[in-house]
Amino acid sequence: MLGDKMNKFKYSNDNKRYYTYNYFLKSRYHKKIAKVSLNAGFTCPNRDGSKGYGGCIFCSSSGSGDYAGHIQDDLLTQFNDVSSMMSQKWPGCEFIAYFQANTNTYGPLDKIKKAIEPFLDMENVKEIAIATRPDCLSKDIVEYLASLKKYKDIYIELGLQTIHDQTGQFINRQHTYQEFLDGLQLLRHYNLEVCVHIINGLPYETKEMMLETAKVVGQLDIQALKIHMLYIVENTKLASIYKENKFKILSREEYIDLVVEQLRYIREDIIIERLTGDGKLDDLIAPMWSIKKVTILNDIDKKMKELDCYQGDLYVKNH
Ligand code: SF4
User: How far is the CA of 240 from the centre of ligand 1 (A)?
Assistant: First the structure.
C-alpha cells in the first residue's frame, strides 16, 4: 500500500494519505486539467413529476449546478467563456467538459447527443464528465456513451448520497439503492468509468449509517468518489425543514473524524475527487464552518497523520 522508499501513499504526489484527484489527472494527462461546468438544460424525474416533484430536498433550483454555465447561453458559449478565463490563469491547460446541472441522461437520446457532440472533436477537451442519476440510464443511452470512448475519456458521475433507502425517501431521491446498483452494473458492463457522490450529515442519519455507506460504496466497482458535507441552502425544502425543526448537523470536528474513518474503509485505488462540498456560499444557512474548505482538507491530512492511517488501511473485501 505504501510507496516503498518514501513511506508515502502511492496515489498522491503531495503527502496526502488518500488517492488525490490531482494525482489521477497528472498521471493520466501529464498536464494541468481544469473542469468546465455546463448546464445543458436537462431536468430531473423527481422534479418534473415523472417520479416526483420538487427534486431532492437539499438541491438548489440550479439542479446542483451552481457553478455551471447559464442555461440561456448555448453550450459552446458556456464552455468558451469559462475555458478562456481558465487558460489565462493556467496557460496551456486542457479541459474536462462537465455536464453538471441536473440529470444529463434524462431525455431523448437525440437531445443527449446534441449536447455532447460539439465537444467530441475539440482538441483541448480531454474528458467528458456526465452527471446523472442511476435510474436514468437506458441500454441505448449507455451504449451511446460507451461508443464515445474512441473520441474522449468518458466519466459518469452517479448521485447516490446514501445507501439507506429510508433516508433516500426522506430526501426525495425517488430511487432505491438497488436501482443505483443496477445503473452502476450497466455502466460497468460497458466499461464506463464511474464517480459516485455521497453526502455526510443527511437528516437523521447516525454516524454508523454514514460509515456504512462509505464501507459499502468503498467495496463497489467504482473508479472515483466524491464525499460531500450536507449544505443547507436558502430556497430549498431542506431549508424549510431545518428552520422549522433544527435537526442535528455535524460539527466540523465530527465531519473531519468521520471522513478520516470513512477513507480507511474505502479501497485504496478509488480516486477521492472531493472531501468537501461545493454549494453556493451566498445562500448557505448551515454549516457555516464548511466555508473554509482548505482548512478542512488540511485538518483531514493532520488527523490522518496523527492516527498514522491511510485510505483503505481498514478495507476488508467481503464479497
Ligand atoms: S437528482 Fe441531482 S440534480 Fe436532480 S434534484 Fe436530485 S440532487 Fe438535484
Answer: 18
In whole angstroms, what is the distance from residue 304 CA to residue 310 CA?
7
Residue 32's identity, in one-letter code, is K
**Confidence at 279, pLDDT banded by 50, 70, 90:** low
Closest ligand 1 atom number to CA of residue 43: 4
3-state secondary structure of 245: coil
pTM of the model: 0.95
User: 95: which 3 cell numbers?
Assistant: 479541459
Annotate 186-242 with DSSP letters as a single string: HHHHTT-EEEEEEEES-TT--HHHHHHHHHHHTTSS-SEEEEEEPPEETTSHHHHHH
232-233 and 193-200 as β-strands: parallel, antiparallel, unpaired?
A: unpaired
Q: What is the pLDDT of residues 236-254, one digit of tens each?
A: 999 999 999 878 999 999 9
CA atoms within 13 A on the CB side of 28: 15
Closest ligand 1 atom to the C-alpha of 46?
Answer: 5
For a substitution probing ligand 1, which of 133, 162, 202 has the most ligand atoms within 8 Å of its CB? 133
* 145 three-class SS: helix
Q: Which residues line ligand 1 (CB under 6 A)?
A: 44, 46-47, 55-56, 59, 63-64, 102-103, 133, 159
How far is 203 from 138, CA to CA, in rounded Å? 31
Nearest-angstrom CA–CA distance, 134 and 186: 10
